[in-house]
């Protein structure tokens, strides 16, 4: 039965062309507040770009610090291309370039133009004497830019976390937050308000709410927000039958971060027939939650249109090639005892993680690996075992077929070890690595040839 399910999964993945990634999806810089959009059959992600506060810069040392934005894109959701910096605080006339306040952005396409919306601190006060956060627009002919920022922020808008939605009738709406969640219609030029800002009613009165993201599915408008119901943010949603409401609070999309990251920030996108939730955690900076990292997990709806709660995973979504280094520390499941994950280098966290197997029969399982159609010859592992040990590589289940047994030699430094694959398998399988004797082993990655 399980093999049959795997076969169906393989067929679905191959025919849909879905590719998937591990979490976090950007592994060389901090990213937060991801807005994902599908443009030209690719997924583009517009996140905030957290940085550690440079000495003497920003508002204060232990606060959010962002000087610019990058955009990322992927066709298969596995391989992400960084298109580089698209907007910087030094290049926008109205932005206080000492504020490092380029918070959660959004981007939307209209008539072949791409409109990038971003909040930042203003240099001068507006007509009402307000400095604080304004929301600006930068415009490009391609999603990856180059973007040209307008010289003034949008008039009548003070706040953060812009989100733009274009309804089926062509009317565009701008949502943002400033204590409350605000909405106003946008003119067709996408850069000016067409109506007075309204506070969206019926949202929780207690606890911070911010980061609105509105989407429509099957006639239901989903207004999603991070909200502090308890101590830190969780992702919640309300539904309505109009982009401006009224909305009814309906449920929780994602509970508070298991990593205790105070913020979360979401976007929802349907790509090649599957819905995805983009969000952030502080995986690369567990001791400072203002340096965050964006993640993706699959999202499902119940028949009545309600959203099924998403549990954040390390594995993320989809297929990993057996012929690339598979980071099994982004496991799908693991034995209750004797298996754990740790940074390879707790100072240089972007080096990633290692998997530790420390008691006999401890295992980790990494789902949905594509072994292709060719006969496998060997497996390679980057591993370390002080006393020497043995690993078994199995497929599909912890007691599934053994395809290789790997002797890890005694040593105190990382080594790349090779072993023969005795039972070659093609197609998509779950990969399981099991410790077969008492001596602990640390594994950085595993790949096949
Ligand atoms: O990234 C800075 C702020 O943190 C965002 O604007 C909020 O949504 C929260 O994620």
Kindly describe this structure.
- The protein starts with a helix and ends with a strand.
- The strands form seven sheets. Strands 20, 21, 24, 26, 27 and 29 form a six-stranded mixed β-sheet that branches.
- The protein is mainly beta and 449 residues long.
- It folds into two domains: 2-299, Tachylectin-2, Chain A (5 Propeller); 320-448, Jelly Rolls (Sandwich).
- It has one helix spanning 2-16, and strands at residues 32-39, 42-48, 68-74, 81-88, 106-110, 113-121, 133-140, 148-149, 160-166, 172-178, 180-186, 198-199, 213-217, 220-227, 234-240, 248-254, 267-271, 274-281, 293-299, 320-321, 333-334, 339-343, 353-357, 363-370, 378-384, 389-395, 402-408, 415-420, 428-435, 441-448.
- Mean pLDDT is 94; it is low at 1-20.
- It binds beta-L-arabinofuranose.
- Beta-L-arabinofuranose (FUB) is lined by residues 32-33, 48, 64, 103-104, 160-161, 210-211, 263, 265.
């Amino acid at each position: 039965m399980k093999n049959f399910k795997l076969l169906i999964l393989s067929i679905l993945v191959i025919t849909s062309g879905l590719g998937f990634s591990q979490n976090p999806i950007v592994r060389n810089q901090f990213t937060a507040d991801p807005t994902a959009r599908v443009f030209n059959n690719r997924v583009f992600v517009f996140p905030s770009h957290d940085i550690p506060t440079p000495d003497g810069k920003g508002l204060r040392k232990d606060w959010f610090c962002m000087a610019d934005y990058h955009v990322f894109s992927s066709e298969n959701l596995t391989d992400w291309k960084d298109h580089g910096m698209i907007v910087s605080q030094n290049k926008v006339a109205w932005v206080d370039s000492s504020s490092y306040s380029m918070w959660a952005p959004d981007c939307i396409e209209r008539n072949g133009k791409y409109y990038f919306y971003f909040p930042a601190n203003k240099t001068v006060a507006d007509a009402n004497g307000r400095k604080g956060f304004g929301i600006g627009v930068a415009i490009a002919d391609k999603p990856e830019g180059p973007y040209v920022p307008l010289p003034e922020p949008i008039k009548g808008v003070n706040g953060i976390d812009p989100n733009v939605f274009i309804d089926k009738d062509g009317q565009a709406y701008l949502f943002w937050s400033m204590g409350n969640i605000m909405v106003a219609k946008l003119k067709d030029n996408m850069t000016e308000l067409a109506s007075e800002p309204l506070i969206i009613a019926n949202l929780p009165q207690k606890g911070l709410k911010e980061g609105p993201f509105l989407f429509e599915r099957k006639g239901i408008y989903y207004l999603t927000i991070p909200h502090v119901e308890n101590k830190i943010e969780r992702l919640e949603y309300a539904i309505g039958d109009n982009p401006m409401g009224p909305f009814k609070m309906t449920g929780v999309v994602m509970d508070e971060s298991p990593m205790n990251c105070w913020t979360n920030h979401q976007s929802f996108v349907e790509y090649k027939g599957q819905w995805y939730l983009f969000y952030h955690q502080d995986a690369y900076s567990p001791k400072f939650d203002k340096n965050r990292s964006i993640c993706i997990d699959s999202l499902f709806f119940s028949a009545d249109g309600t959203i099924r709660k998403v549990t954040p995973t390390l594995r993320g979504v989809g297929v990993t090639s057996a012929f690339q280094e598979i980071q099994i520390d982004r496991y799908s499941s693991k034995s209750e005892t004797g298996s754990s994950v740790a940074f390879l280098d707790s100072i240089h966290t972007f080096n990633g993680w290692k998997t530790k197997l420390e008691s006999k029969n401890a295992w980790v399982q990494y789902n949905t690996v594509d072994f292709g159609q060719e006969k496998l010859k060997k497996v390679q592992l980057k591993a370390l075992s002080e006393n020497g040990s043995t690993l078994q590589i199995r497929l599909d289940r912890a007691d599934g077929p053994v395809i290789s047994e790997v002797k890890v030699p005694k040593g105190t430094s990382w080594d790349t070890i090779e072993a023969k694959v005795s039972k070659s398998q093609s197609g998509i399988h779950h990969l399981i690595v099991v410790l077969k004797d008492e001596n602990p082993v640390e594994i950085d990655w595993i790949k096949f040839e």
